[in-house]
Design a protein that fits this description.
- This protein is α/β, with parallel strands linked by helices.
- It has two helices and four strands.
- A four-stranded parallel beta sheet has the order 3-2-1-4, covered by helices on one side.
- It is globular and about 30 Å long.
């Protein structure tokens, strides 16, 4: 998974849509720890696995159950990984 962000972006916020068990989220946070990652998936059981994997790896991300339309604060992003 390769994430390229605009250099002018002060926040560097990435959405992982359909985050599942967290593979892409962990890949991004491992390679780019300074980036804010929001992981969204409609399946709570899948995200429970993602949270556990993130915790074991010592990584943090904003993990949310739902769909993109459920979150008004996810309109301004630097990248989306699907």
């Amino acid at each position: 998974c390769m994430v390229v962000l605009a250099a002018h972006s002060p926040r560097r916020r990435v959405l992982v849509l359909g985050a599942g068990t967290g593979k892409e989220t962990i890949d991004i946070k491992t390679r780019f720890p300074e980036i804010e990652v929001v992981a969204v998936d409609p399946s709570e059981p899948m995200l429970e696995l993602a949270r556990a994997k993130l915790s074991r790896a010592g990584l943090e991300a904003d993990v949310r159950v739902g769909r993109l339309d459920d979150f008004d604060d996810l309109r301004e992003l630097d990248a989306v990984v699907m």
